Amino acid sequence: MDKKYNRFWLAVGIIVLTLFLDQLIKIEVKTHMYYGQSIRITDWFYIAFIENNGMAFGMQVMPKAVQTLMRLVFSGVILWYIWRLAKARFKMGYIVCIALIFAGAVGNVIDSIFYGAIFSESTRMSIATFVPAGQGYADWLYGRVVDMFYFPLFEFDWPSWMPFVAGKHFIFFSPVFNLADAAISCGTIAVLLFYSRTFGESFALFKKKD
């Protein structure tokens, strides 16, 4: 098989595996934990079930339905970009990074599109269950993204002499996130650290015609 197809299908394999694991973990958490429930694994690692309305780490910058549709379009562009990278035989490591970003974006889009329509409400008193499509806690496109990984690596109280934050409690790392968020973050950080030049060179693909 041509090497360009090997690159593309390896990227597809990474995407499928990441999406499978992301959804498996989310469904397991959502159907076995109460909202807000936290399970201690170690002092610095918890499974803490929360949901959010936005993108990575809970960010939301526009109406929910618009944001979901824009993320779908963005995901389509990234898939096309991966194909062009493979066809142009770009570095495999770079393609893997972009595949992780794509998988993370799609993983959270799946929650937004489907979860509101196929799951009952997760509350502090009841665990969500699957329901007939369209009879869930929200309309299509309005589902909430499931988060569960919490790493409070260390925490302390700011000393009283510190301006603005005196006496406040600080936790590092405080965001709760999911595997899709981690894929986006890892892919992005790796591109910035190791493939910044390759990223710049790849813009030429948008000017080329098949």
TrEMBL record:
- Transmembrane residue ranges: 7-25, 65-83, 95-118, 170-195
Q: Which UniProt keywords apply?
A: Aspartyl protease, Cell membrane, Hydrolase, Lipoprotein, Membrane, Protease, Transmembrane, Transmembrane helix
Question: Annotated pathway, please?
Answer: Protein modification; lipoprotein biosynthesis (signal peptide cleavage)
Answer yes or no on keyword Hydrolase.
Answer: yes
User: What Pfam family is a match for this entry?
Assistant: Peptidase_A8
Reactions mediated catalytically: Release of signal peptides from bacterial membrane prolipoproteins. Hydrolyzes -Xaa-Yaa-Zaa-|-(S,diacylglyceryl)Cys-, in which Xaa is hydrophobic (preferably Leu), and Yaa (Ala or Ser) and Zaa (Gly or Ala) have small, neutral side chains
Principal localization reads membrane
EC class (word) = hydrolase
Q: What is this protein called?
A: Lipoprotein signal peptidase
Q: What is its EC number?
A: 3.4.23.36
Cellular localization per UniProt = Cell membrane
Name the family. Answer: Belongs to the peptidase A8 family.
Sum up the protein's function in the record's words: This protein specifically catalyzes the removal of signal peptides from prolipoproteins.
| Membrane topology, from the record | Multi-pass membrane protein
UniProt-annotated catalytic positions: D147, D181
- Keyword Lipoprotein annotated: yes
